Fold each of these.
Amino acid sequence: MHLDVESLRTYVAVLEWGSMTRAAEHVGLTQSAVSWKIKRLEQRVGRPLLIRDGHTLRPTRDGRILLADARTIVAAHDRAVYRLASPDFTGTVKVGANEDTGAPRMASILGRFKRMHPGATIEFVVNQSRLLAPLLERGAIDVAVIQVTPEDQQPDDVVLWSDELRWVAHRDMPFDDGVVPLVTFGQNGFYRPVIEPILDREEIEYTYTVSAPTSAAVRAAVAAGLGVGVLASRHVGGEIGEWARAADFEPLPPVLQIVRTVPGEQPDIAGPLIEAIVEEFTDRPTRREHDDT
């Protein structure tokens, strides 16, 4: 039997915070990712570990036995990692990430990295990909997690995951004639330069009804029936459906979520930090189960 440390860390957090939602915020994962880790842990031990008691979760008898050992294992792991971490990584590294990565998760990664390398200074900024890319090019930040299309991918980019895009609207709001109200991520949104030429070629008039900087806000506006948007396919569901009028449009390009470093010389600490980011975001079963945006 193999019990991985991160599943045990998640289990401890669920019981300390009383729910998977609050535990997810604490460990920097989504609720579905936390649920998946708990399910995998129960499969590995071969018995249930949690009981739902109203709105909270409490351990089973076996869960109580595991909890004490889990705390010990997690603490010992973190202590060993801290002690063995190279003391050579010092200096400042500036990191940027778009909202789709999940700011709590990125902050959690950077926090663990800082504890492992106390001599390092980390500066972290969350912004849209089209604003982060120029900062990276001129060296204002050292590492960025951003969205690109395949044609804009560079040879040294590290791909974390890919998304298929879909035209979306409220399931009961077809917007099948007249001027199309658009819900976008604003003037600097990544999708706007992609969708505008398509609508122009289709000779469809459009107007900007909602401009929001976050995925959650765009999804809420689409789900409320305020207009048509473009979102990753994983967000289709519930009140958000595919926009039927776009069925004959040219396909939307796939989108890659990548890690990119500043061209030329970079801080020595950037390499290990990139490795930590890649390890975190590629250690999961599917993108749908682990995304919270």
Amino acid sequence: MKKIFTFLGRPSHLVATIIIFMAVCVPLSTVTASTKSICPTTATTTEISIQINASSLTSNSAKPTITGTACGTKTVKLTLFKEGTTKTYYKKTNIRVKNDRWRVKISKKLADGVYDIKVTGTKGEARRVTASGQLVVGKKSKESKNSAKSATTLAIGSVPLLFGGTARAGANVPVSYLQITNIGKETANLKGFWVKQNGSASTQSVIGLTVIDGSGGSKGAIGGTEGSTPFKNGLAFVPTDSIFAPGQMRVFTIKAVMSSNVSAHLGKQLNIAVTSVDTTASPKGPFPIPGATWTIGN
């Protein structure tokens, strides 16, 4: 059974549309060290979902530890690729899921750089569910953490209130829910978001991208008509024009507009991550910020 809850209000009452399919998985970053299950079930089933903890995707260690959550599967498989390649660089199978959480230390020494990462289930329907992201290791990680600070800084993070499900033809599905705060001393202008499709689905399944702010108003869009191709080489820029006074916090939802013809993409996953933002301020966040995973269906 599918239920839709909508919460409306000012920033103190976060604006989100939460789509829940039989089960809910909360990202690891919001969970304390508890043995309680974070994947509620119905009497007969649990919706399969996999998440990577964004905070584990940046490391100074050559042998980083990657963590996340998984529902509906007892084991997961992790695969690493050098950025922009399709040849497997490292693989770890049968990673045990305990209390809906998984954890794996990379045994191979990784050179400084960026790696594409995929985590999938290992048996049955779980093999069709994939979580994707980018792992930043070593020097680049240190540089990103210690970059020069300006008087104006936008702190950007994911709000763990979005859950994937089935993305149907012609639907608008929320792929990223962000909280952005100006923690600097000057006014900042947010000009847009750079996003990347990390799932197994072709970018042609998406014909548009939109940004909605906490008041529910549209703040920007690209494409939206059948035949539009907002992604170029796997990346898309979603424009906005939002002003932040010092200390101001706002929330934004990025939505993907699905093609009316998704027959060629059925069963494939959509996972759109925010890789960076265009702003007059110094951005601070755990980039890339992974989004909700959607499976394309009729």
Amino acid sequence: MGNHRADHRSPARAVVDTTPSGAARPVGGRRKATRRQSQANPFRKIPAVPTIVGAVAIVAAAGGALGVGGGELQAGQNLALSSGAADSFSGTDAFNFSGADARSVAISRDSSRQALEDAANKQTEAAVEEVAQQRNSELQSLAGLAQKRADQIAKNLWVLPTVGYHLTARFGQSSGLWSRNHTGLDFAAPSGTPIYAIANGVITSTGYDGAYGNKTVETLADGTEIWYCHQSEIGVTVGQKVVQSTQIGRVGSSGNVTGPHVHIEVRPGGGDPVDPYPAFIYHGVTP
């Protein structure tokens, strides 16, 4: 059965009789089992197809490289490009930049960056300097305006008309001493005590005026009139310019009085009198 299968699989194969010529065959017609000798394979020494294809690809790549570079492979040397169409691979990095060139590029890049930074710093300094100069100019302008305003305020500041005084009569009070309500503020002080101009102005009137006694009228820059009444002595003349704190007379008892004092009236625009007390407060002084 086994021999039949073998014969069926390979009908073309010939059975080789290895029994020596003239030797007696085994009894019973059975054949003696023998080992078949394998025939030599004629294709055994031929390389496999993938191996051949790989070799051909390597040869083609080498040939293409030589063709592109225009060079040739010389005995005893490595593969090199001789035409100058491409740089030598010796001493270059993966991007075909030599070490010296890379350092030069890095140094140039750093120098450019430093130059840009220096230019930016100079521009910033110039801008800061310009802003500082503009700010200083504005501050100087503001300082000038502030000084001007301070001067104006100082000119408009008032001072008290005398010293060592006490208030005896206020604005609006009524008494049999006056024909109508009191029109000013009375600063009582010893006779002869100096009387001072309470603000800057011009003397526009001096002389005796009935119940007011010896009276001096000072007109301020805004047209307000200040009346100084009941003086014992007048120390200024009409047309004279005075500044605050200038002595213009002395406390007395001239006119309709009960004792020495200086009667102060404030008349805006030369019109009817107003309460002097808040006017003093407004101009920076408290009687």
Amino acid sequence: MELRHLRYFLAVAQEGHFGRAAERLNIVQSALSVQIKALEDELGGPLFIRTTRKVTLTQAGEVLKREAQHTVDQAEHARRAVKRSLSGGSGIVRVGFAGNAVFSGRLMEDVRAFHAEHSDVEIQLQEMAPLLQGEAILSGRLDVGYTSGHSINNTNDSILQKTCVGEYPVIAAMSSDHMLVPHGHLTPTLLINHPLILYTADDRYKTLEPALERAMGCEPFIAYRVASTLTVLALAASGLGVALVPAPLMQVQIPGLVYRPFVSNELNANLFVLSRNAETTGAVKAFLDITLRAKI
């Protein structure tokens, strides 16, 4: 018994006439009669009482009508649910992010825009160190990552798609009583012999340190290398050094901490969206479509 047999049966039951049912189904009446007879043979008895004017259901036909309608309705529900999932109308999107995605506002903008169009999709957000996001996406624990480009420079896996969605200058953060505060902006040479604080949760420091050395003309004094954004800012606010951070971190206001522009062509920060290249999940594809549509 196939789903089409149940649809044929229901059409005859509802129309009470083979000719009208065949017309509704857009098939010839003789073909419909053959299909109904085959269904009756399979079930072992008549489903209709046939007269020259109309057909009515037998008791067995009444039972099948209830069950057939339920089955057809369930099949239609399943079809719509799967189609909705494939089009991104339902499901789950798991998003990993690092601090810059939040401080820049980009993560919230993308989630807000996606939720406005796909309110039935569940969004799961998870803060995750930049260097861990690629592996989490490849292993299926994440669908999308917001991370710095420095954390994916060595990621040559063709399975991953990497798209830049933000570029920001680097600024300096220091305690309010630091001797460099009176300067309206800082330059690399002003940092000579001053202890510096670098963020090391991604690979940015590996390119930042050589860039600083070139810009300063000497080896920089790196006092701290830490993997937490708040720790970087706390150390700077405590007067233990000057932190070089992406400009969006100016959104973070900490007592005793001030920010100054940092003038250097060598240094910048960025934000990338990381995902699987051959993504097949409808909800994730819809999220990426909205995210990558905006870009920078």
